[in-house]
Amino acid sequence: MRALSVTGVGGLSLSPAPTYSACTAAPVNVPETPCTASYTYTGDANHNGSSGSTTITITRAPQAITWAAPANIVFGTALSGTQLNASVAGVAGGSAPGALTYTPAAGTILSVGTQTLRVDAAATINYNAGYKTVTISVLYSMGACLGDLGHTILQPVNYDGSSVFQQKSTVPAKFRVCDANGNSIGTPGVVSSFRLVQTVYGTLVSTVDESVVSTTPDTTFRWDPTAQQWIFNMNTKSLSSNMTYYYTITLNDGSTINFRFGLK
Asked: What is the pTM of this model?
């Protein structure tokens, strides 16, 4: 609220206290009755008298919520204060802001991919309700999975790209991804796409984008519940010998598994 002032020529500058009607002092909280603040200046030898008034009504203020986007988490990690760490502030010197409520709540296991988190600040006598959202990426573990490499192509394809197979043979592409607890994930939809992306013949490098042909009726990776892994039997019959082929498996968390092998 603005302070009352009386000014005029000749250096007149006063800051008197106003007189309130309808209440005994200026309102502080929203429920309090609006007041009329007025003052009458009687004048002096050099100034005529004057008066003025204004109505003071307190309305709810907004709440300022601060919440930085959390770091990526591994699938299977329960939400905690590490991710749910928003703060809320009200008016400086004013009453306390509202309590915070998170959706999803602490302890929730989020699905794989980009997820939205929300925090709500409850309305109070002096503050409007407020909210803020952030996004968080939930990824598969990049670590070991069931005692073998995780998030990496598995044997018989060497992860370092040194494998060479006979042209027209079947090359099984296998991989596992695990959650934060080391469980291999076989939920449908783990693989978003599987593409041949590059070929190399000597010094000739060609960028391509082709579907991968299977030697079985399966057109996508299938889950092997016994080995707890994903598998795709690649048909190299239509591929050429003396070339190196590069592949990309895209997962539903947005990550990729890249591998290559040569044919002779």
From this structure: 0.79
